[in-house]
Amino acid sequence: MIRPVKGKKDPDVELDALMVMIPSELQFLVQASKAEELSFSDMNLYHLYRANKGTQAPFTLAGPFLGAPQAVIAMEKLIVLGAKRIWVLGWCGSLQPDLTIGHLIIPTGAVSEEGTSNHYPVSNRLPESTTALNRMLEEALIQQSLPFSRGSVWTTDALYRETPDKVKTFQDQGILAVEMEISALMTVALYRSVAMAGLLVVSDELFQLKWRPGFSNPLLKKSSRAAGKVLLRLAGSVEKL
Known about the structure:
The protein is α/β, with parallel strands linked by helices. It has a single domain (16-235), classed as Nucleoside phosphorylase domain (Rossmann fold, 3-Layer(aba) Sandwich), CATH 3.40.50. The chain contains 6 helices and 10 strands; from the N terminus they run βαβββαββαβαβαββα. It has helices at 23-32, 68-81, 131-143, 164-172, 182-192, 218-235, and strands at 16-20, 36-38, 47-51, 59-63, 85-94, 104-113, 148-156, 177-179, 195-205, 212-213. Strands 5-8-7-6-9 form a 5-stranded mixed beta barrel. A hairpin with a 6-residue loop joins strand 9 (195-205) and strand 10 (212-213). Helix 2 (68-81) runs parallel beside helix 5 (182-192) and helix 3 crosses helix 6. The longest helix has 18 residues, at 218-235. The chain starts with 15 loop residues before the first strand and ends in a 6-residue tail after the last helix.
């Protein structure tokens, strides 16, 4: 009954959209791309910006977001406004000892423990990102000499229920990290037939079955800025699927 719609005063957006989960990184990317804020009907939930820096193609910035429901509301809106290729920048908690604070992860699949994905039937397909976009992202990271890992992540709604037993279980399965949005965004992208890829930065570590936050670690800021710049270049590229 309730469908995502374009409001009378909502703008058209570009084919490329970059969804940024973290407020500080959204602010940095808005400034770096000289983006201008757009007025639209969901402004009380998140912000939209149009970036048109230099000779790059224009693209849309959106954020910040916390959790699958809010991120999916925004993704649905971006799609109905015209987005076809969606990039995501976020943080995650590492489950593997070799992925320390500041490490970059390309999530290629996800284990969903969030409640949003179940409402989007995709014929029993597991959540996955778009291969072509992942390839573009990998090539861009290699060109910038930025090390990265790729693999599946665990998405949860319950920030305070990342228990030692769950961490150990997913760690043993080879899951790289935990975060709160990716599986839902992958599922909605599959359901709506749009392309989607993400880049996550390790902000905290759980692999020792104790929480080690890295939010004040300079490596987190350095890696987040580097990751954001890579996504800016991709979102503003002229190459389209």
